[in-house]
Structures are given as C-alpha cells and as structure tokens.
Design goal:
With 300 residues, the chain is mainly β. It has one domain (2-283). Helix content is 9%, strand content 51%. The protein has four helices and 15 strands. A hairpin with a 2-residue loop joins strand 2 (52-64) and strand 3 (67-78). The longest helix is centred in the first third of the chain and has 8 residues, at 2-9. The chain is globular. The relative contact order is 0.20.
Length: 300
C-alpha cells in the first residue's frame, strides 16, 4: 500500500511530505542550543486513509553532541489484518554540520501482502555513495534516469521530514515554512517546496495537555527523476495544491516538528497526526499528549 510506505519513508509523506524548516546557524546549534540537555525525543503519529485508521507510527530521535540517530516503526492494517497488513521500520543517522544535518545512512525495511523490501543507502559529504536493495529493482526504460549530479546535496526522507525545523518563536512562526528540500528516497529524486499558508490555534481540552499555534505549510511535490511520468500517483501528487504539513514548537526547545500531515491519494485523503511528543533530558522527562483535529482537510 503506497500510503504506508510513504509515511515510513517520508516521515512516515508521500510524504512526503514533510520536511522541514530553517537550517541551524551553527554546527551544534540544534544539538546543544535548541534542546539544551535533551538527548531523546519520541513522537507517535496516528495514520489514517480515506476515513480508516491504519495504525500508528513511532519515531525516536537520539542526539549525542553533533551526532543524531532516528528510528521509526509502523504497523498498519485494515480489519485487524483480515484485509490488509503492512509493517516496516526506517532509520537514519548522521551529524550536524555548519549548514544543517548531513546524513550518513538511511534504511527502509517493510513487508506487506506479497511484497517486501530491504533498502539501505550511505552518504558522504552530502552525496549518495551507495544503494543496496533486496530484491533488486528491475530496469524499466520508461523510468526517468537519475544522474550522479542529482544525488549530490540531498537528504534522506527521515532527515528531511523530522529533523531540523527551528525557530525561537514558539507561536507558529511562518518562517519555518519557507524552504525547498531536496530528497532522495532510494528510488526517486524529488524536491519539496514549502510555503507559508496560515497559522492555526490548537485548543487545549480535557483530552490533551497541549495548546498553542501551528504553522501550516503548503507543500508542493516536484518529481525530478527515478519515476515513470505516467504513474497516476506521481501525477496526482505533483499536480495537487492540497498537501499540507502542520508544524508545532516542541515544548521546551526551539525545534518545530510535524504535528499533522495531509495529502490526497488515489483512494482518498491520507493523514498522519501526532498524538504525543516526549522529550527526555537526562533524568527528567517532559511528556505532551496531543489530540488530533477533525479528520477533514482544512481549506485556505
């Protein structure tokens, strides 16, 4: 199921989508200044498609000085696996350089239905140096070929989606939406262009411990290579103006992280909405529970 793979490989967003924000201004700005003594962040996302809840995606990020490691895990099913079941893991690690994160490794493993895949990529100096995939991808003459130059200065989906949106303004700063993100997911090379759309106030109620503002970004998906031009999913994603990512300030830090991702698919709207963020600072832990908004696409 493409939506499940997108959620894991892009943030879990054909995801995509996701990705986000202003690069740190110093080599250790994110690891030290933004998070203080924090070294672990855990986020849980509820994934829905066409009105059905597929399951949860959990992302754990560990920071050690200027090094980072991320691991995501998801299990998605329909009718408790009677109709569909899909599970997968994804991981990324690297370091923070003078201009932002520099990935060193990315992996994606999944199994669902009669399909499975093991993907691993390595990076050096911001460029992809090696790709291994099981099973191997068959040559398709209709796929736009990827050039070596297109694999330079790119981010893997995990790093692009969750790592370094940053602002000292915690009130839905629209500046975190002013970015163009170059991404390679092991198969396709594409850009994600983020633009400010609006600011939304998230109300605190009995079921949530979070209130504040979200910066809502319009996301434009620009395919470059590694895809078939006649792929209906790619055509939909590249033509739509309805992809959104909502970014919220992580309590106690200068980080902005995805709160909600919304995108159209061939079978209806898909979304990933955070239900909790947990920041661990040494022996101290701050936990924020977040209730999802109504399952409708906000217009604007």
């Amino acid at each position: 199921m493409p939506i499940a793979r997108h959620v894991l490989s892009l943030a879990a967003v054909a995801v995509l989508t996701c990705g986000l924000g202003g690069a740190p201004s110093g080599e250790s700005a994110l690891a030290e200044s933004s998070l203080g003594s924090a070294n672990r962040i855990t986020a849980v996302y509820r994934v829905d498609l066409a009105g059905f809840n597929l399951g949860n995606f959990q992302l754990t990020t560990v920071l050690r000085g200027t090094d980072y490691e991320m691991r995501g895990e998801g299990r998605f099913s329909v009718l408790q696996g009677l109709i569909f079941e899909w599970r997968g893991t994804t991981a990324s690690k690297g370091r923070f350089g003078g201009t932002g994160p520099e990935p060193a490794m990315y992996s994606l493993n999944f199994q669902g239905g009669d399909k499975s895949q093991q993907l691993r990529m390595t990076f050096d100096g911001g460029a992809v140096t090696q790709i291994s995939r099981i099973p191997k991808k068959r040559f398709n003459p209709h796929v736009i070929p990827i050039t070596k130059e297109q694999l330079e200065g790119v981010l893997d989906p995990m790093t692009a989606a969750f790592l370094y949106a940053r602002s000292g303004n915690p009130n839905g700063d629209p500046k975190v939406c002013d970015q163009t993100i170059p991404v390679f997911d092991g198969e396709a090379r594409f850009n994600l262009i983020l633009q400010p759309k609006r600011t939304v106030k998230l109300q605190k109620d009995a079921s949530t411990g979070y209130s504040g503002f979200a910066a809502v970004c319009r996301v434009k998906f620009i395919p470059i290579s590694g895809y078939r031009p006649d792929n209906p999913g790619i055509k939909l994603m590249s033509e739509t103006n309805e992809i959104e990512v909502w970014l919220v300030s992580l309590p106690g830090t200068e980080m902005y992280v995805p709160y909600r991702i919304v995108l159209p698919t061939l079978v209806g709207y898909g979304s990933a909405t955070s239900t909790s963020f947990r920041v661990q600072r040494g022996a101290k832990r701050a936990s924020t529970r977040i209730s999802p908004p109504p399952a409708r696409l906000a217009k604007g």
